[in-house]
Design brief:
about 290 residues, two-stranded antiparallel ribbon, four-stranded mixed β-sheet, 8 strands, alpha/beta
């Protein structure tokens, strides 16, 4: 079990779980680009749509205003889940803050929004079926906590570290946004065909996996590392469960390598392991 409790709770968290499903259209499809996991209801269709979403990201603006407005609704978020989310996010802030400081830079934390069913974002309408995702326009991670049940039951990847890996992967996309990696990858995609564009996105996703491992390797409290051996095994099971080849086999019984957008199970496991073994972001040289 991940040992959380010594780190401060993140102050960059918003609970929208009690709000109704936001109206409005899907703003250009940009949400699919950066989501680290494909929700089980999204299936193979989601995998194939990711590239189209990726190409649209740079053209998506804010929605203006936002939120459902009106009287605040009661939260539907389990207190234990909330604590896990804000403490894991707080741990990533401490860890990446220290890593950035070592290189003479300042880390600007991402925000996190927990919601139920759907919510408005600066990238369009976010829906639970898309799985957790990061929107670069508002630098925010969006997550429907019900996904953790699917991760455990549908994908067979239970455990605290499996859930922490999901969050740390999305934080990895935020790191890429701060570094300019996402902009460079999107620009590179515009000059190549779909298969090559998919390969670029695979590099982006594997780097985010690796960055999740870097967080795990460096996360500390007063007693030392918060990660134990059992956590590593949980992370490997989660990375294996969400590989493109594994998801495609489950969805359609066959594998289409040229459509991969996140990497195979073996690649995702290797990327996470590389980050955890090295503890060094420079070892995560997957993306352009």
């Amino acid at each position: 079990m991940v040992r959380l409790g010594g780190e401060p709770e993140s102050g960059h968290f918003e609970d929208r779980t009690g709000q109704g499903f936001g109206g409005g259209g899907f703003g250009g499809g940009g949400l699919g680009l950066l989501m680290g996991l494909v929700g089980s209801r999204f299936g193979i269709v989601g995998v194939l749509l990711l590239l189209l979403a990726y190409c649209a990201v740079s053209q998506i603006g804010g929605l203006g205003g936002g939120g459902e407005g009106g009287q605040a609704a009661a939260s539907k978020l389990d207190p234990n889940v909330r604590s896990f989310l804000v403490r894991t996010l707080g741990s990533t802030e401490e860890t990446w803050g220290g890593i950035f400081q070592q290189s003479g830079a300042s880390y600007r934390p991402t925000n996190m929004v927990a919601y139920s069913g759907g919510t408005q974002t600066a990238c369009g309408l976010g829906q639970a079926a898309m799985g957790p995702f990061y929107c670069p326009t508002d630098q925010t991670i969006y997550i429907d906590p019900a996904f953790f049940n699917e991760l455990s039951q549908r994908f067979g990847a239970p455990g605290d570290f499996a859930m922490a890996y999901v969050i740390a992967h999305e934080v990895g996309h935020h790191i890429q946004n701060l570094e300019g990696t996402l902009d460079r990858a999107q620009q590179a995609q515009q000059s190549v065909g779909r298969t090559q564009g998919n390969q670029i996105q695979v590099g982006v996703e594997l780097q985010a996996d690796c960055y999740a491992g870097v967080w795990a390797a460096n996360a500390r409290d007063e007693r030392g590392s918060i990660i134990e051996q059992g956590d590593i095994e949980e992370g490997m099971r989660a990375a294996e469960a969400i590989g493109d080849d594994t998801l495609q086999k489950q969805a359609q019984g066959t594998v289409v390598p040229e459509s991969f957008t996140h990497g195979t199970s073996a690649q995702r496991m290797e990327a996470l392991r590389r980050g955890m073994t090295s503890g060094n972001p420079s070892a995560c040289n997957y993306a352009r």
